Amino acid sequence: MKYSSVFLPLLFLAAANIEAQTAPLPQIRQNGAVRQFFVDNKPYIMLAGELHNSSASSATFMKPIWDKVAAMHLNTVIGTASWELVEPVEGQFDFTLVDAQLKEARQRNMRLILIWFATWKNAGSSYVPHWVKADRKRFPQMVLNIRPNSGLSSFLAADMEQKGTGPLSPLGEETLKADAKAFRALMRHLREVDPQHTVIMMQVENEAGSLGDSRDRSPLAEAAWARPVPAALMGYFTKNKATLLPEMLEVWKRQGYRTSGSWAEVFGTDEWADEVFMAYHVGRYIGEVAKAGKAELNIPMYANAWLGPQPKQDLPGQYPSGGPVARVMDVYRAAASSLDLLAPDIYVPDFKGTCALYARSGNPLFIPEARDQVGNLFWAMGHHAAWAWAPFGVEDLNPDGQAAQAYKLLFEMLPQLAAWQAAGKVRAILVAEGEKPEPVSLGGYKISLRGGGRAVAWDGTPTGELPGAVSTSSRAMTNDTRPFAIVVNTAADEFLFIGANADPSFAVDSPGPARVGMSSKDEGHYEKGQWVPGRRINGDEIYTPALPGPKIGMLKVRLVRFD
């Protein structure tokens, strides 16, 4: 059959549209040794960054930012959709800004994660529409006994209260109904205009909870506090008692593992009991919003946490009580089963410890906000097979900086890295400040990084801080001078290193000849999944660090065993 030159383009366009309409939904699957995120039926590792909160509220403002983040080799941008701009008038929806993000991302072959800024943003309610803010009877606020002289939490809670952006109560059913309706409309729109799934995941709300007090004390909340603990929570705890996380088991134990009674009877009357109460009700609220959205478009959804306990924020209320912190993950599983994971926003010094807390009991590690201390990227992806490590305020970062260098190297080998993760062939080494270097076992060897340096502090003292330690000034940090690397066992006696500030050393960790040396040491990089060798490091230069830093480098080492 012969086609005209006019008909052929139409045929190809129709085929492309059919393919887009049948694109598989993003999914979470177990793949070998790890749980991975799949996009278009392939493992997908995100080279991500999160925009400043207000950037995506203007398509014009975003124009130069899109080219900048593309130059930094991002494949995923975490953008925003705020309730106040999506539904400025009740029942009237405007998705112009969402569509602008879709268009710009597609033009650069990027994917999007959207944050639903709605009822809660950093323990406040600043992103709700005007018609919600103006009707406090229909949309009741939390009532908080703000602790005086309690540092940042008291200041922020009092400031939000004064400005009229204090948090709405999770017990407000009209609020939940309105939020869920708007989110469902957003997800319906994405189902209709984004069949190729440019948007691969959704964040529902942002750093929810009560700040300044350990629980909501509004009339609605006080009535709920006096009622029996919901059967959904008690049933989950009873069924999963053997596997509950130790922090939650300890709170439940204090009252003798009671399986019925009021909140005070089952959990007690202190801040830790308050946190369980808040986590259940905030989690239930977020879960219902997510459930409404998934009824339209069933893509993975998560909730993120302002971390706690943390230094100077030791008790619930000093950090947002009821948010999805690691210690209450079991409560969220009972209250918000529609969520696929819980995610930490990591600004605390103990990055390794925080990752470990969130990588428990089957929760995949996904870090939607972090400082751009790039050694942490290597730890998260190498040690925990994290889906993403996303520096916040990514548009502030240097396009030639360490994060961009790391993303450029990783971009060309992402399918290989995902396959190596699934095969259990990937490890990470990060020597944090004050730590003694610890070797990792891989491929029959114990591998260490020799090097100096110390953790780099945030570049400059911020002119101010917002919730979660987000700076109001530039996000860019100085170079990370700690020794760090992702280590891959690419073949027998062969290892790939990606990192900086260090040189690898090896010891035998398997039967055979007792001594080991380097047969070859090659610089190089990947191009479209293929290894491209660079210099062979030999002679006098064999003694110099192969990953000297601060530039991120790639090295392949072949070993030889002998007696």
TrEMBL record:
Domain Glycoside hydrolase family 42 N-terminal: 68-272
Keyword Cell inner membrane attributed: no
Signal peptide range: 1-20
GO biological process, one term: carbohydrate metabolic process
Domain DUF5597, chain residue ranges per copy: 404-542
GO cellular component, one term: beta-galactosidase complex
Keyword Signal found: yes
Keyword annotations of the record: Glycosidase, Hydrolase, Signal
Pfam families named among the record's database cross-references: DUF5597 (PF18120), Glyco_hydro_42 (PF02449)
MF terms in GO: beta-galactosidase activity
Record-given protein name: DUF5597 domain-containing protein
